[in-house]
Design goal:
It is built from no helices and five strands. It is an all-beta fold.
Amino acid sequence: MEQHLNRIELRGRVGTVRTNEVNGTKVANFSVVTEHLYKTREGNAVSETTWFNVTAWDGKDMPDLDRIVKGVPVNVTGRLRINRYTSADGVEKQYYEVLANRVRIL
């Protein structure tokens, strides 16, 4: 039987953070920045920065979500999800989000 896998692992620093409570469970929505360093064929150093939106629900394999603050280094494991919606002007839009199943503060 063929296995399907949707898994992403990030190691970076936390940007913006917002915590809420949904049906009595704490949830943190935060951004994580990663940086990929490489050299071009000409030997020039290049830094590629990528921002990810992360959602983490309080529970097993999660730290105290109040410890996730701007600038703290984290390791996030989860799955990638695409959210689609229609904006107020009628344009269909989409954004990517990492649903975390494990967050470690480094």
